[in-house]
Write a structure and sequence with these properties.
single chain, 566 residues, alpha/beta, Rossmann fold, five-stranded mixed sheet, 23 strands, binds calcium ion
């Protein structure tokens, strides 16, 4: 089987000297041999897969490398260009604002729609450049943002509805430099194009982002070892030429869904957290890559979606690991992580909002929803094959795969998940991997001799041990970007990954949640004007999760009623 990314090491970027990783810092803070946390990042393949055609002629090699200055006190490299936008997602007709700093006199912006056949859809040239410095350390730029003025803005065309976009900014005078910045455009009426929402991951990307001198894993301030406990979305992404970590593994999945004709609508974690009722518009939620940072109300919303018979497809791993809070209208993520018990102001105020690990929350362990959960140290093991356990399962329909075959090649990558203590008792274990080879040089950091990984499927139904379930399906791949890597590999043998992906989503699309019934209306009436809270939100009668069952919830229910009867 031909490989296009043979060199794919899953090596976290371990810092030396003053570049400390969190596990290092914690061992300093607590002097206890706590388990290693999830990896900050995994290396990328040296070159793109053959089928990933781009009509950007100077597509750079794909690898994770900070191209944007993040170092405090170090002169800005010349040439320099960095950028961010004012929001993560937009509606058609909204204005997008680019904040750009460059040492060049002029620069250009091109916008590409991200799918297998990438296409440039807009271009602005001869824009006047101006250099703005990174704010000084005292202003905490990692948490307060770059605070650069708007350099360029325009109204997003109406026909751009529903897309995953990437901006390329290039200097057009002096020495050549470039950077990217991602954004999405939502559908004006949620659910009107598709019942599938692709939940684009910005949270993990931003918590990894070192721009400004700190991230939630990284610190460049030698006299203060503290990691960031708040990070701003209003700053450039330092990694992967402005695309940010955790970009990979996502675009392959969304591209394949588009190629299969599913036309997924794109939303972000903030779109869900800020408007939980948006999920009434969708039957299937798709996650890919690495959704490590989740707000409490997002967990609640996912649970509510699952409860009403909606489906969840995680082509990802180490999801739902840290709890976060959004602040500043969604422009800031707060997560105290290891510092939470000492520093999080929600301690003793509302412990359910303390920003620590989800697996410390009795109400919301990841595996209770996903079926599996992160396995510590997994990112220090070499990639391994994901082996088929039940070839008669519907997800393998249309493939020649037999039990014992590998799906793709070395699909179990970097961080991987396995069945946990709170997992549903009955699940289909579809794929498993046994990872025994520690990445060279890390043997002394790994106290276990192997890691088990699994991909699972279950339904919220009697067959799977939930007598009153409404059929909500869950697929969890349990591998970081490995699923996307294989999905986007056009070598012989990899078509099975695309078939399996399509089978999973098609089964979910073909099984819409049960229609709104008189029973739902009776539950709504029984909780009328009640004060509700998580986890059950008045038996999910509080549809918009604002704490009260009232006319707004009735309106959502009535709209669902209308949509199933029209
Ligand atoms: Ca309500």
């Amino acid at each position: 089987m031909k490989r296009t990314f043979l060199v794919f090491l899953c090596i976290p970027l371990l810092g030396t000297g003053r570049y400390l990783r969190e596990d290092g810092a914690r061992s300093i803070l607590y002097a206890t041999p706590l388990m290693l946390e999830a990896a900050e990042a995994c290396a990328r393949p040296e070159q793109a897969s053959e089928g990933n055609v781009s009509n950007w002629p100077d597509e750079p090699p794909i690898h994770r490398e900070d191209n944007t200055s993040t170092l405090l006190g170090v002169p800005t490299p010349t040439p320099y260009i960095a950028a961010y936008t004012d929001k993560k997602s937009y509606l058609p007709g909204e204005t997008i604002r680019f904040h750009v700093s460059t040492t060049a006199d002029t620069y250009s912006i091109e916008i590409r729609k991200e799918q297998w056949q990438r296409k440039v859809v807009a271009k602005a040239t001869n824009l006047p450049g101006k250099y703005y410095p990174m704010p000084p350390y005292e202003q905490q730029p990692w948490a307060t943002g770059a605070n650069w003025p708007v350099s360029y803005s325009w109204v997003i065309p109406q026909e751009w509805e529903n897309g995953n976009y990437l901006a390329l900014l290039r200097t057009t005078s002096g020495e050549y430099a470039y950077t990217y910045h991602p954004f999405i455009v939502r559908t004006r009426v949620p659910g009107s194009r598709s019942k599938i929402a692709f939940v684009t991951n910005y949270n993990t990307r931003q918590t990894y982002n070192r721009w400004g001198g700190r991230s939630m894993y990284y610190n460049e301030v030698p006299w203060d070892l503290h990691y960031a406990v708040a990070v701003s979305f209003l700053r450039p992404f330092a990694a992967s030429y402005g695309r940010g970590d955790a970009y990979w593994g996502q675009w392959e999945v969304s591209s394949q869904l588009i190629a299969d004709g599913f036309d997924p609508e794109f939303i972000t974690e903030w779109d869900i957290s800020s408007n939980p009722a948006i999920l009434r518009a969708y039957d299937v939620l798709v996650f890919a890559g690495h959704h490590e940072y989740i707000s409490r109300n997002m967990y609640d919303v996912l649970q509510a979606h699952h409860y009403r018979g909606g489906h969840l497809a995680f082509f990802s791993a180490n999801d739902i690991y840290w709890q976060v809070r959004f602040e500043d209208g969604g422009n800031t993520i707060v997560c105290y992580k290891s510092y939470a018990w000492k520093e999080d102001p929600m301690m003793g105020v509302d412990d359910s909002l303390v920003t620590t690990r989800w697996n410390q929350s009795p109400a919301r362990p990841a595996e209770a929803l996903q079926g599996i959960c992160y396995v510590p140290y997994s990112y220090l093991f070499e990639r391994e094959d994901f082996i088929v356990q039940d070839c008669s399962h519907f997800i393998f329909e249309g493939t020649p795969l037999q039990n014992g075959d590998a799906l793709g090649w070395k699909m179990a990558s970097c961080e991987t998940d396995y069945i946990g203590s709170k997992s549903p008792a009955i699940m289909d274990v579809i794929l498993t991997a046994r990872r025994e080879r520690v990445i060279a040089g890390y043997e002394n950091r790994v106290p276990v001799d192997h890691i088990d990984a699994a991909a699972v499927y279950y339904q919220d139904s009697p067959k799977y041990g939930f007598p009153t379930g409404r059929g909500g399906q869950v697929f969890s791949a349990g591998t970081n970007e490995g699923w996307g890597d294989c999905l986007g590999d056009w070598s012989a043998g990899y078509e099975t990954v695309r078939i399996v992906t399509g089978n999973i989503i098609r089964r979910m699309v073909d099984s819409p949640p049960p229609p709104v019934s008189l029973q739902d209306l009776a539950v709504l009436a029984s909780h009328w004007l009640d004060k509700c809270s998580s986890p059950n939100w008045c038996e999910y009668a509080d549809v918009d999760m604002n704490g009260t069952v009232n006319l707004a919830d009735f309106a959502h229910l009535a709209a669902s009623w209308h949509s199933v009867t029209e």
